[in-house]
Amino acid sequence: MWDFEHPPLDAELAERYSIDRMKPSECADRLAAGTADIGLIPIAALATAPGLHVLPGCTIAAKGRVRSLLLVHRAAQPIAAVRTVAADVASRTTVAYARLLMRLWGNAEAAFQPMSADLDAMLARADAAVLIGDPALLALEERNNRLERTEEELVYLDLAEEWRKATGLAFVSAVWAAAPDTTSLGSPLDEGVAKDLIASRDHGLKNIDALVAEWSGRIPIPEKTIRTYLTENIHYVLDEECVEGMHGFFRMAAEARILPEYKLSF
Predict the structure, then answer these.
(1) pTM over the 0.85 mark
(2) Spatial separation of the C-alpha atoms in residues 224 and 246, rounded to whole Å
């Protein structure tokens, strides 16, 4: 979102785009309801809102460790013995990946229950917890403090890294998508929109130092961690490997009846 938030292009883009910010799952709901034209949405929403089209070029993905998507369980309780998983409700896609991984680990019976992202509260009610985004990054930063405070050893599984190990596929979290009635010939959502989004991504990658300084003042995470996250953990280009990863995700999710059958539409 660099160009949409910073000069010299923010004023020009503000004349063409009206931006609302919300949780990823809420972005998908708005797009499905027709109250938004485009949205950065969790990919699972594509299977539950038929007719959405993926805009080319940009993604939020990982091809290894990502740090911001975790499944946390007690070291004394192996994955096979986990019966309940408290799941952060902010992203349905991450929960779908977690459910698929549980099946691949031989535990298809674990029950997932929605909860707010509070690790202590989650583990007080369930055997394991799924955390995404800032709460996951913060949990990693606080793991030593938590061990000293509770004397309870936990295992922090990086879902993107585990997905790669189990399937060999890229972990794709989100894409820009467009509502069905905005993708017809001659509509406002032509190639120019994708070009704006790609240019904004590329300009952001050229301004990592500014982003690190900006976000280190917003969340209590060291600058080094933020820099590594932005430059090494997240993959931003919707390349062939990511498309292949999406195909694999949708195929396995349909086979496991976690999501309806879905074929990508660009």
Answers:
(1) yes
(2) 30
pLDDT 10s digits, 120-149: 999 999 999 999 999 999 999 999 999 999
pLDDT per position as a tens digit, 162-190: 999 999 999 999 999 988 766 544 455 56
Q: What residues contact residue 205 under an 8 Å CB cut-off, 6+ apart?
A: 236
Query: Which segments of the chain are extended strands (E)?
Result: 38-42, 53-62, 69-74, 84-88, 111-115, 128-132, 154-158, 171-178, 235-237
Query: Residue 207 contacts by C-beta under 8 Å, 6 or more apart in sequence?
Result: 2, 6
- 66 backbone dihedrals φ, ψ, rounded to 5°: -120, -25
Task: List Cα–Cα distances, 22 to 55, 105, 168, in angstroms.
Answer: 20, 33, 32
Q: How far is CA 248 from the centre of its chain?
A: 16
Residue 178 burial (CB < 10 Å; 0-12/13-18/19+)?
buried
Of the candidates 159, 231, 238, the one whose C-alpha atom is nearest the C-alpha of residue 194 is: 238
d(CA 222, CA 142): 12
Q: Report the side by side order of strands in the sheet with 171-178.
A: 38-42, 171-178, 53-62, 235-237
Which of 3, 16, 1 minimizes the C-alpha distance to 192?
16
249 vs 255: CA distance, rounded Å: 10
d(Cα 121, Cα 202) in Å, to the nearest integer? 39
